[in-house]
Amino acid sequence: MKTKTYNVIVILICSLFIMSCNNNKPKWKQLFNGKDLKGWQVKIRNHPLNDNYANTFSVKDGNIQVRYNNYGDFNQQYGHLFYKKPYSAYLIGVEYRFVGEQAKGGEGWATRNSGIMIHGQSPNTMTVEQDFPNSIEVQLLGGNGKDDRPTANICTPGTQYVFNDEIIQEHCAKSTSKTYHGDQWVRVEALVLKDSLIVHYVNGEEVLRYTKPQLDPVNGAKEGKPLTSGSISLQSESHPVDFRKVEIVNLEKYITDKAKLTEVINELLTKK
Questions:
Q1: Which of 186, 213, 249, 237 minimizes the C-alpha distance to 74?
Q2: What is the secondary structure of 1-67 as a DSSP string?
Q3: Residue 5 pLDDT > 70, yes or no?
Q4: Does the residue 242 lie in any domain?
Q5: What span, in angstroms and rounded, lies between the C-alpha atoms of 138 and 211?
């Protein structure tokens, strides 16, 4: 009986140890609950904060849907759906697809175009007529059926960054991703490490890497204020798009331990 009791105790201790280790592992947190827009704020150009004009953002069939059925002309009413809190060091994953036809009056460049805005300004500080938050945009593009159109590019409303030791002021730059035509689901991830490093991934493959995200410089300076944290938002740019997953892993507690940070990131990127 003693041996049996001892074995049971050992099994319990081992089980508790394994559970404790698993609990300490970083896990994806769902920013979108699959049911409603709780925890999110809407800002659409020419409309006040949280005026979800024409029901642009809604939830249906477990997806965040961006639609323009109740618009007349799009009229450059660019919108953003902001998560309620800012982040600084994290890995964000978004699964999206483009559907249907572009809204009447949408710009040609906005066809099958959306984005994940990171290190962005607070929606509370945006003016009513402001089109985009100052931010780094992980640009999401869908194929048009014929041309090369990579996704997870970078655009820079009110910002700049460093690539190959050079400050880049060009508004948009392409990633190395392939083109995704049609209405297929695509997963894009962005690794954001304060003001040091940002990496874009498409379906698990790295497609773009750059450093030192910063605001546009002022008073003739070459470099701007470093972006160490900020809002996260999803775009409405005139083409219908669905988001079925928006999830994040907060990496703040690993940021000072490079070896552990690398281990955690590698583990997260291999688990889909």
A1: 237
A2: -HHHHHHHHHHHHHHHHHHHHHHHS---EESS-SS--TTEEEEETTS-TT--GGG-EEEETTEEEE-
A3: no
A4: yes
A5: 14
Q: In terms of residue numbers, what domain contains 109? A: 28-270
Whether residue 5 is contained in a domain is answered as no
Q: Is the dihedral of CA 80, 86, 87, 92 positive or negative?
A: negative
- pLDDT bracket for residue 269 (50, 70, 90): confident
pLDDT for 219 equals 95
CATH number at residue 193: 2.60.120.560
Which residues lie below 8 Å from residue 103, measured CB to CB, with a gap of 6+?
Answer: 68, 71, 74, 238, 239, 240
DSSP state of 122: P
Side chain identity, residue 57: F
| 36, burial (CB in 10 Å: exposed 0-12, middle 13-18, buried 19+) | exposed
* Helix (H) / strand (E) containing 141: strand 136-141
The total number of structural domains in the chain stands at 1
Q: CA–CA separation, 229 vs 194, rounded Å? A: 6
pLDDT per residue as tens digits for the range 124-145: 999 999 999 999 999 999 999 9
Are the CB atoms for 227 and 159 separated by under 8 Å? yes
